[in-house]
Amino acid sequence: MTDMDWLDALQRLRGEGAGGVLVTVTEVRGHAPRAPGAKMVVGESQTWDTVGGGNLEATVIERSRELLRSGAAEPESMTFSLNEHATVEHGRQCCGGVVRVLLEPQRARPSVAVFGVGHVGYELARVLSRFPLQLHLVDSRADQLDPDRFADVTNGTAQVHLQHSPVPESTLAELPAGSHVLIMSHDHSEDFILCDAALRRGDLGTVGLIGSSAKWSRFRKRLRDEGHDDAAINQISCPIGVPEIPGKEPAAIAVSVAADLLRVFEGARATGS
């Protein structure tokens, strides 16, 4: 068990983009190690705080990690009889009471990185900031990342990271595995470098490139020249967004791209991935 209370642990996991399970003692009848309201957090390899130790806690940790591995989203309850006659796997607890606990999976927030926060990137950031995700806003131009410009973005639900990066491909290399990347910088050369870097990672969630079919045709040829095969290149979507949402205004493009990304998130939730 790590020396950190459950609330700090949840915040830490969220900051790391990791999932966990919040465990709460919801009911106690008779004698028990902890009172109703006691909480702990179970991560993939660590735990924080305690709901009473012994067989109760060991079983809760084991089940919580099963929920994490399966990608479960729904909470579930467990009931424990703390007497010498109860069937146990991790040692007996003879307090004499009955304890009921609630396990609430806290799924990892999706990680989204927008490279280039010009007109479209800014509007996209405004939309995405209203959803529970890790939002990385990256630009090679420092003046595009003035905090005052993003006041209505950073006060949303998302955890927003404003990142000035003269070499944005280095920032891309540091993103968590499974991140969703949207490339829309002010410079086609920068866009291409980011596409190449994204394919070389091989562990991203989705990769989208803003641009026309003509731009994508040129990029496909250049990516082949860099050694990428068609199977890899096809991992990049270009143009991006939902075709049914028309309009070339920055806000319209942003809504279209966000809608497509939300569809990806919903598919991941449905499959537990």
From TrEMBL:
XdhC Rossmann domain location, by residue?
112-261
The record's InterPro entries line, in alphabetical order, gives: MoCofactor_Util/Proc, NAD(P)-bd_dom_sf, Xanthine_DH_XdhC, XdhC_CoxI, XdhC_Rossmann_dom
Tell me where in this chain the XdhC- CoxI domain is found: 16-73
Q: Which residues form a coiled coil?
A: none
Family annotation (Pfam families)? XdhC_C, XdhC_CoxI
- Know the name of this protein? Xanthine dehydrogenase accessory protein XdhC
* Source lineage: Bacteria, Bacillati, Actinomycetota, Actinomycetes, Micrococcales
